[in-house]
Specification:
It is built from 10 helices and 8 strands. By secondary structure, the protein is of the alpha/beta class. It has one domain: Rossmann fold (3-Layer(aba) Sandwich). It has an 8-stranded mixed beta sheet, sandwiched between helices. Helix 7 packs across helix 8. It starts with 21 loop residues before the first strand and ends with a helix. Bound molecules: zinc ion. Zinc ion binds next to loops.
Length: 305
């Protein structure tokens, strides 16, 4: 495993999964043009909170982004189960559009119960998508994440981890090849730092993408407190009060609330690295060198018989 493409790191030969923490800043132009990433989360508000700054950065730098939501989010929204499924689905489309994702895939596994699903079914569905979209990079839960209590998170993370390399192996779900797809491994991985104590080796400067992150979070109304600002504003109005921070309309109130109260993790993480806002990830790069040492040796030393 070798590290590539980190600006300012000429000697990029250290293992990508080392404990060394690398701060990643914006890159000029569109160095990732032609590359594809898939962000795979379980619930409406996972990517918005854990990785929307990174997603906005990668899209601005030329990546095409797709988002996959594995659960149906039926437990959140404060209404009936069916109404919750619909409102989360609608919020999810709006959130994905706000961040600039090209397409949305919803798997609709039952929320909170994903440790009881057919695991191979989930992995196979992900492998189909990774091959179909030719996904180079995945963004998801850390499959070995310390303190992860939500089964939807760890089941999704493990299936993504396994599917990302199995997608490159022609004998896994070989019927995909009959359908015209090609093996295609997703060799770069960014795992969320979703719970206290989870490992990270990348700190991503998201300072210039923070408005996009706010855009994503305010769409998380069924869960994720995206509409908390307007709710507080309405509550205060009923008491004959107003909070100047929240402005004069619901949209301003939601945005101001997110910016002031819901970005604390990113602000704290940024402060430690002299940045305004930062997200953390455990990054793995499994792109091998173009030529192995064995290939180089054979090329150089093979002689005519
Ligand atoms: Zn979640």
């Amino acid at each position: 495993m070798y590290r590539h493409g980190i600006p300012g790191l000429a000697a990029a030969a250290a293992p990508a999964d080392s404990a060394e923490v690398v701060v990643v800043k914006d890159e000029r132009g569109q160095p990732h043009r032609g590359k594809v990433f898939a962000a795979v989360h379980a619930h409406l508000d996972d990517v918005p909170y854990y990785a929307s700054g990174l997603c906005a950065k990668l899209i601005r730098e030329g990546y095409t982004g797709y988002i996959v939501r594995t659960s149906n989010d039926e437990k959140y929204g404060g209404r009936s189960t069916a109404q919750n499924i619909l409102s989360n689905e609608e919020d999810h489309f709006r959130m994905a559009a706000a961040l600039g994702f090209k397409d949305v895939f919803d798997f609709y596994y039952q929320n909170h119960d994903m440790d009881g699903i057919s695991y191979i079914d989930l992995r196979g569905r992900l492998i189909l998508i990774f091959r179909m979209l030719k996904v180079d990079t995945i963004i998801s839960f850390n499959p070995w994440g310390h303190g992860e209590e939500d089964p939807d998170h760890w089941v999704t993370g493990r299936a993504v981890e396994e599917g990302s390399w199995m997608a490159g192996m022609p004998n896994d779900f070989h019927e995909h090849m009959e359908a015209g797809l090609q093996p295609h491994a997703a060799s770069e991985r960014y795992y969320f730092c979703a719970r206290p104590g989870q490992a990270f080796n990348r700190v991503v400067d998201i300072g210039s993408h923070i408005d996009k992150k706010v855009d994503a979070i305010v769409e998380c109304k069924s869960q994720g407190n995206g509409n908390r600002g307007s709710l507080v504003r309405a509550q205060l109005a009923r008491q004959g009060k107003r909070l100047p921070l929240l402005g004069n309309d619901d949209r301003s109130a939601d945005r101001a609330y997110v910016r002031q109260f819901l970005l604390e993790n990113d602000r704290e993480c940024g402060k430690r690295h002299k940045l305004e806002f930062a997200e953390r990830f455990y990054y793995i790069d499994q792109r091998g060198p173009a030529k192995s040492k064995a290939d180089e040796y054979i090329e150089k030393n093979a002689v005519r018989i």
